[in-house]
Amino acid sequence: MILGFLKERGLLLALVFIAAWSASLKFENHRLTGKLSQCEEGKARIVAAVKEADALAQAAHEDEERRSAANAQRSEASHDQDLERAAVAAGSYLDTHRIAAGGVRGQTARGESIEAPATAQGDGAGVPAEMPADAFVAVSSPDLQACTAAVTYAVAAHNWAATLPTTGGEDPPNPPRR
C-alpha cells in the first residue's frame, strides 16, 4: 500500500535516489575518514620530526657553548701567562734602562736644553754625555707597564679571535702564537 502510494506520486524514484545518495555519502565519508587518519598520522610524524630536530639543534647549541667556554678559558689562561711573562720582561727592561732621577735632560718650550745629562746612580744606566737632547725619550714605569698590559691583551684578543670557528662549527687548528 505504501509502495503504491509512492509509485503514484513518483516518490518511489525519489526515495531510491535518496537511498543511493545516502550510500554514496557513507562511502565517501568512510574514504575521507581513512584520508583523515593518514593526515593525522603524517602530522604526528612531522611533529615528532620537529621535536627531534629541536632536540638536535639544542644539543648542537649546547655543544657549541661548551666549546666556546672552553676556548675562552684557554685563551684567558694563556693571556694571564703571557701577561705575567710580559710584566717580568718589562720590569727587567726598566731595571736595565733606569735613569737617575733629577738629572734627566729636557727642553724648554723654546727648545733650549735645561739640564745636563744624568750620571748613573746605583744600578741605573744614566744618559751618555754625547747623546743629543732631542734624541732621548723617557717613559715612566707605570706607563711602560700599562703599555705592556695593553699590547699583551691585544695579542691575546687576536689569538682568541683566530680560534673562533668560521664555518661548520668545527674547531680550527691552534694558530701560531704571536
Give your account of this protein's structure:
The protein is mainly alpha-helical and 178 residues long. Helix content is 65%, strand content 0%. The protein contains three helices and no strands. It has helices at residues 2-9, 11-96, 141-162. Helix 2 runs antiparallel to helix 3. The longest helix has 86 residues, at 11-96. The radius of gyration is 44 Å and the shape is rod-shaped. The relative contact order is 0.08. The model is unreliable at 105-114 and 116-120 (pLDDT under 50).
The 3D shape can be described as rod-shaped
DSSP strand count: 0
Secondary structure: helix percent: 55-70%
How are helices and strands ordered from N to C?
A: HHH
> Overall pLDDT, averaged?
76
Q: Could you describe the largest sheet, including whether it forms a barrel? A: none
In DSSP terms (H or I, runs of 4 or more residues), the helix count works out at: 3
The fraction of residues in strands falls at: under 5%
> End-to-end distance, in Å?
110 Å
Q: Whole-number radius of gyration?
A: 44 Å
Structural class: mainly alpha
Uncertain runs are 105-114, 116-120
Brief sketch in words of this structure:
This protein is an all-alpha fold and 178 residues long.
What are the defining features of this structure?
single chain, 178 residues, mainly alpha, 3 helices, rod-shaped
Topology readout:
Elements: H1 2-9, H2 11-96, H3 141-162
Helix pairs in contact: 2-3
